[in-house]
Amino acid sequence: MPHLITIKDIARSLNVSVSTVSRALRDTYDVSQETKDKVRKMALKLHYKPNFNAMGLANGKTHNIGIIIPFITNYYFSTVITGIQEAAYNQQYNIILYVTNDSEEREKKITKDLSVTSLDGLLVSTCCSNGEHFEDYLAKRIPIVFFDRVIDQMEASKVMQDDYNGAYQATVHLIKQGYTKIAHIAGPKDQTFTKKRLQGYLDALKRYCLPIREEWIIHSGFSQECGENDTLHLLDKPSHLLPNAIFAVNDRKAVGATLALKKKHIRIGRDIGIIGFTNDPVSSLLSPTISTIAEPAFDIGYRSCELLLQHIHKKQTAIQEITLPGELIVRESTQKRVVGV
């Protein structure tokens, strides 16, 4: 059986104490920088790898982070996970994924069955309208950071994109392109970010004194199929009630709207403008290409994980809410001179 390098081997090689090596690897203040550099150099030379199980027994840490997430198959969440993984890797933590498939029932079952003794903290993008199933964890002071899909009333740290201003910017862009009858195909009513994007849309219309019609606001799921069905519903109206632009809550729904308009032989851009929210790569591959609000997905994941690790390492870390801005990306679907069939 091969010999596993331990801190004892590093200490023996440098003729220092085991406790000095341990403190140097933990970057404590009472070890000189010169000694830290020597210890790290020897650790690399000997191919030392930390024994997280032993470390966990010593300091009560498992070096595991749980992530509860709606999906892993779409661009946004896969990019968020990449950001989380990068931050976790930098501090030698492992991540464990729990996927809800956007099911409230599954999310509640996952939280009920979680073995919190095997986790140091949780990152959560919820699909639920309230967070009652997390209250027991918070009461036990288990670190939790919500990201992307958050619950406003939860007393926990949160990292979000700027949903309100992104939606406001998207709607104003449509208005400035000459669209005056703008519909919104939204997400589920009880989702916090759905409400914020809806409010941004409404406030932009009010700011420019444009009509707000209840029949132009449709709530449903987040899928491409939902976007297609919502758009077909919008088109099933008398001509004087037809919108001439659509703001979709995300790019998947914007893609569905694009397919619905193509089926009806409606020219995208010239007849009806479309803008989404996410900057999924598919939005730049369709013809015509789809305007969108780019979300800082990697940064959301990275900052969420960094914040969670702060809560794990220092229990007294204050609750924080971090909001990251999006970016308007203008493409063909909101240009009236472009003919898309």
TrEMBL record:
Species name: Olivibacter ginsenosidimutans
MF annotations from Gene Ontology: DNA binding
Boundaries of every HTH lacI-type domain copy: 5-59
Family annotation (Pfam families): LacI, Peripla_BP_1
Keywords: DNA-binding, Transcription, Transcription regulation
Keyword check for Mitochondrion: no
Protein name (database record): LacI family DNA-binding transcriptional regulator
InterPro entries noted in UniProt: HTH_LacI, Lambda_DNA-bd_dom_sf, Peripla_BP/Lac1_sug-bd_dom, Peripla_BP_I
UniProt keyword Transcription present: yes
PROSITE patterns, per the entry: HTH_LACI_2 (PS50932)
Lineage of the species this protein comes from: Bacteria, Pseudomonadati, Bacteroidota, Sphingobacteriia, Sphingobacteriales
